[in-house]
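User: I'm preparing a small set of examples for a lab meeting where we compare how different chains pack in three dimensions. I only have the primary sequence for this one, and I'd like the structure in token form so I can line it up with the others. Please keep the answer compact; I'll paste it straight into my notes.
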Amino acid sequence: MSNTKQILAMLKSRVSGDDEQFYSIALQIAATEARRGHRSTAEDLRTAVDEARAAKLRGVGVAIPFARPRGDLESLIDLKEPKLRIKDVVLHESVNEKLEDLIRQQVKRDWLREHGKTPNRCVLFVGPPGSGKTMTAEALAGELHLPLFVIRLESLITRFMGETASKLRLVFDETLKRRGVYLFDEFDAIGSHRKATNDVAEMRRVLNSFLQLIEQPNATDSVLLGATNHPELLDRALLRRFDAVIEFESPSDEQIRALIEKYLRPLKRPRLAWKKIIEAAAGLSQSEIARASEDAVKTAILDERDTIRTDDVLRRLNDRREMREAFSKVER
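Assistant: Understood. Below is the structure token output for the 332-residue chain.
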């Protein structure tokens, strides 16, 4: 039977409306029963939790927004409520396989913990700009029904000694309290190798802090994602800390076509000039291609058409390219 502390913790979680904490305690009790040899009881508890979660998802008519970070964290973390799933991202088969393994371990994390194992949760995304790293991070969060927290490196990294490491600890403390997917985009800004000639002592301390914090036990199993366009800049010690490294590539011609076809549904698309379309989409990111395709669909709907024309797609792809070029001019 469960002890008094567990019962008290379950009651407190119900009062505060923290369903996930309630379920987590119930699964801890299931693990205890399994270790005692009460396999049937443990399985009944796990099934009840799964059914309760499923019933809650079915009963939600309006999406409940995730709680936004507050206080000191407000300037360090941006909340993004995921609208994508893995099926919405067109990726290479090897990338899909690694993501499926990560998702499976996260979904069945309580089963792993019953046997003294923890799910993989620290993953490094590497690849060129526009290869779908950020989009995949959102899709992963959506697949796990978790909020996506994007770490604001411009606020995290400061010129004051010790302040960056202190802020980094705040972020990691949050991962211990609130389960989610935490994305460190442009990760090379804090993960550059410690022997870099342009490095300073403060950034070496920050990297050392990160290496220590990433190894802390994490009861929430929050997913930590690092994403970088420059893996060659990263310190080799990081490779031992990440559970997996997933390499992305720019969308191939086949992926571009598959992505556009996906987002043009359900409208008809007779005889599209795919060669022209693929040439126009070359160099754009998955997100840009998806948005361009959706805009083409909106144009057809407003024109009261049920078919997509080549010009619809080309126009929207060119719009996205012009947007990218405009931003490039501003940066220069």
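A couple of notes for your slides: The domain at 253-331 is CATH 1.10.8.60 (Helicase, Ruva Protein; domain 3). The radius of gyration is 23 Å.

User: Perfect, thanks.
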